[in-house]
Amino acid sequence: MEKVKKAAAHLKREIGLFGGVSLVAGMTIGSGIYYLGSYVLERANMSMGMALLCWIIGGVISILGGLCFAELGAEMPVTGGMTTYLSKAYHPCVGFINGFSGFLLTGSGSIAALALACVTPFQEEFVLSDIWVKIIAIAIICIFTVINLYGVKHASSFQNFSMVVRVIPLILIIFIGIFFGKETPNLNPGTAIQEGTSFTGAVSMIAFATFASLWAYEGWTNLNTVAGEMKNPRKHLPLAIIISMGFITLVYTLFNLAIYRVIPSEEVNSMIAGGNLYLGTETAYRVMGNFGKWIVMIGMCIGIIGTVNGDCLVFPRTYYAMSRGGYFWKKFGELNSHSVPGFSILMSSAVSIVLVVFNSLQQLTDLLITTSALLNLLAIIAVLIFRKKYPDMKRPYKVWGGVPVIVLTILFFVVLLVNQFVSDIRSSLIGFAIPVLCIPVYFYFRKKNGGVEYNNDELEELE
Question: N or C: which end of the chain has fewer CB within 10 A?
Fold first, then answer.
């Protein structure tokens, strides 16, 4: 074991700007865009104009959040990402809550949900039982666990490949839908506002629909987690987030517009009512037949697999950093002979497999989104705390627009979370309860490992 430690004393810097862009895009563009458009449309009272507006709002909020994260990542380019930021801004307990929530649900649950989402579209085509869907999903997790155990270079290379491939079906649907679609959808957002609806009611409806889109945009926080493995994090990390999220917002909006150009609104309504949520696949089928349908399904599958790979790459780095800081089992803080946190990767995948066994795709999606949004909000607030707490810290990048933009981003997230809590009390309560349940676990590790805080020496070592 000592030999392994000496051979892998530091994480290797092997991720460049394109690797960063592909990592963010790869972990964001996944299964969500193919079916969440149906949920957004439902919550927007089946108004296509309002649904598109909500996709744009969701993208803007995600970009603003990404800009805040870029400042944190540029001033503190360390492995561990949000867990490290929350520990330094608030208290190690808050950082631990983020990391342990990721281990139990948000990180491992994302891997599990994506693995299931990769297989689900093929269930009807190949007449797969629910058990076989789960078996194949577990096999996917195992394959990418092995790939990530052999080093970040291999995992990053596959991420670059899958990022390019996954964009092909999206661009294909956008092109054929916008240029060959014959429908003229009603894009007036006002059709979603029913007569007599109050201003508060209208804002609530928009917020509820926008919140549904955030799962499709989720992924913009994860590049910071591997900042310690980027070649030039202070320069490339902000650029990677801005480029990738701007591109994704444009693609998502045009993708949904393309669908509306091909499928009449009445048929869209009946499809969603009947449980057929994959409108993009139907769009390709109507324009190009079975060939187009399979091109989209295969591209979608490769894209989701790439997201699984990205999650297996990123999330274990958080548990590694927590262990190095004294807040997790010590085994998680060891690197293998390929300079990656091997045990952390294995255990993250093990929890993901357990979640696959005991949950459906819909159950996992509902559980993930509220907890993720809450922790993202705390990290955005941390930008202001860092400026106050560490005024002399080197900041090669600062949020464009300054404090007003940061405050606006915070208000956006608060409104969305409050509205989600009112609209979906059950899922929201679970989402808020998970971080609370992590608190006693934190004190257990504090007592067990001495509760050593992250300090400058530790951060330098992680860099």
Answer: N
Torsion angle of C-alpha atoms 261, 47, 366, 55, degrees rounded to 10? 60
The pTM of the whole model exceeds 0.90: no
Q: At what angle do helices 233-262 and 17-28 cross, to 10 degrees?
A: 40
Phi-psi region at 267: left, alpha or beta (left = phi > 0; alpha = psi -120 to 50)? alpha
Q: Which residues contact 336 (CB under 8 A, 6 or more apart)?
A: 4, 8, 149, 342, 343
User: From CA 413, how far away is CA 372, in angstroms rounded?
Assistant: 11
pLDDT tens, residue by residue, 419-434: 888 887 887 888 888 8
With tokens 């795709």, the residue in question is 361
Question: Cβ(373)–Cβ(82) under 8 Å?
Answer: no
Contact 378, 86 (CB under 8 A): yes
- Average pLDDT value for residue range 110-128: 85
Length of the chain: 463
- Look up residue 276 and give its two tokens: 């057929």
> In this predicted structure, what is the pLDDT of residue 124?
74
Amino acid present at 93: C
